[in-house]
Amino acid sequence: MAVVCALVALVALCLPLTTATTAGQNTTATQTAQTTAEEDCEAPEKQTLSPSSADGDTIRAIKNREGEKRKLIVGVDQNSYRWGYRNPNSGKTAELEGFDIDLVHRIAEDILGDPDAVQFKAIPTDQRIPAIQDGRVDMVVRTMTINCARIADVAFSAPYFKTGQQVLAPKSSTIEGYDDTLADRRICTAAGSTAYSTLEADQKAGELPASTDISTTVPNQLDCLVRLQLGKVDAVVTDGALAASQAAQDPTVQLKGDAFTAEYYGVAMKKDADDLVRRVNQILVDYRKDTANGWQASYDQWLSATLGKDAEKSEPPAPQYLRTT
């Protein structure tokens, strides 16, 4: 247990936040798309623009960066096992690896012709949207769920992964899942996460016991695992895909019950970066078709060990795009 905690603490210190150059902006159909999404948000994963390989103002600004600065600037996680993390066994540099990181390299290769033309920035969960809005990053690829609240602030690509919220607790716990066994229990979630907003809404609606303590929130989701290990909370609620990776890190915890939501991860960008949104959507179409080095290959390498060899339940449905004029 102490080893796991020490590793978590070490990883969390590896990649500091810095300031990025603001990407170029272009004002087009995304503003209309966001307004429509806010007014009628029954399927936030469909509130995106159709694919295109054309360069616009945003992409040209990225390509026009000079010298060593000619890189795609991407907000990522550095401590989510198998998604975006520093593998201490990968060599002296301990480069970032994982499912999200593979996608970032693919986007950089398409836009800049070099999969390594990336400047990674560690972004806490609660700083994902501010980092985009402030221009610190061009995009965020960080197990970020597409939801109605977020599409009011940022633009999303089509979904690239399907998941759902689940409960993670010690194997010895009497907690059975997202039910009445959470009464009088302390739950940890990441600040600004869909997990917290779901718990808050369900508690107000009487669907979560009123005695459940949901006050513990942390900047990074993995911090919840540390608090669970230290006995400061009784359970963690997060995306099932992330929870499965955490359970793989610590054999004393396990998923409790089934997923109680259906959610989709997307690449987040500025609301008015239409050309970049369309380009990423085109990349995702090609990525999913590439059986040798695309989505399936990345799943097999990083996630099959924790989520199972059958990727069908994790692969999002065929994308649907918002119609704009």
Number of beta strands: 15
- Low-confidence runs of at least 5 consecutive residues: 1-38
**Which sequence of strands runs across the widest sheet?**
11-10-12-9-13
User: Which H/E pattern describes the elements?
Assistant: HHHEEEEHEHEEEEEHEHEHEEEHHH
Largest sheet: 5 strands, mixed
What percent of residues adopt helix (DSSP H or I)? Answer: 25-40%
Radius of gyration: 19 Å
**Gap between N and C termini, in Å?**
56 Å
> With helices defined by DSSP (H or I, 4 residues minimum), what is the helix count?
11
Shape field: globular
Please state the average pLDDT score: 88
Oligomer state of the chains in this structure: single chain
How are the SSEs placed, and which strands pair?
Layout: H1 2-12, H2 29-39, H3 57-63, E1 72-76, E2 79-80, E3 84-86, E4 96-97, H4 99-112, E5 118-122, H5 128-133, E6 139-140, E7 155-156, E8 161-163, E9 165-170, E10 186-190, H6 194-204, E11 213-218, H7 222-229, E12 235-239, H8 240-249, E13 253-256, E14 263-265, E15 268-269, H9 274-289, H10 295-302, H11 304-307
Parallel strand pairs: 1-5, 1-6, 10-11, 10-12
Antiparallel strand pairs: 2-3, 3-4, 7-15, 8-14, 9-12, 9-13
Helix pairs in contact: 4-9
